[in-house]
Amino acid sequence: MNRSYCLTGVDGTGKTALGDYLVNLGSFSCVFNAPKYNIEPNDRDLYLLSVCSKINEYADTSRNYTMKAIGLFLSLSVYQRRLTRLKRQVKKGESFGILQERHPVIDTIAYVRGTYGKQLSCDDLSALTKVLSSEEAFWLNKQIAGLFGTQKAKGRELIAFLKSIGSSTIQQSYKDLSSIYQYTEKPLVFLTVANAETVKQRFASRQRLEVHECEHELMKVQGIKIAVLESLNIPYKSIDTSSRNVETTGAQINELIKKYEVCYA
Prior knowledge:
- By secondary structure, the protein is an alpha/beta fold.
- It has helices at 15-25, 46-62, 65-76, 79-89, 104-116, 128-131, 134-148, 155-167, 170-181, 196-203, 215-231, 246-263, and strands spanning 5-9, 30-33, 98-101, 188-193, 236-240.
- The mean pLDDT is 89.
């Protein structure tokens, strides 16, 4: 492959099933799942992601949008590092055979603007003392300071930054997040989309829903993703999964890949 590809879309639009199908079909060597990364026992990011897991679990059970935003931001802050590592592990010449699931910058902007942003509050930071040990909380603040390049940056600064993602222009938000995430990829984006009824039906079979997994909220997030892609002139193709099976949507993506591989050969 001559370029990289990213599969993104809101929860319930069939990203995981479609990604797995494309790998089984041989279209890609593997799927880079984020933020559910493949973590080994001695992995340098294990501690961070275990802390994120605690924060996300609390956010979902208590319906705390601030905690969910923090968990999303921190887990996606290691996206580029982990993707770069995976590229080194795959066979030489196959690094662009990796299908990236989620776009860290676009996803953060869309979820903050579409569902988390209006409910972000520094008052919710006290919940961290219920979720994390004092050692974990100290380490978390150290991580946040490292991302922002200043020892002053802690929870309140992070909340202020996330609020700015919701209020700044899309261009400025993309620039700021790309800098902090150190995200350098320029993939062709496949955006999975579905209607509200389809998303609702898919959620019905899930035992546990994340705090934002409501079809009405996710339709707003879906619309914002499209607005971000178009505003930034990022090349993308919409893949409607509402009434199509995975074989049909997989074939559609394969045809698009063939066309783009010819263009970029």
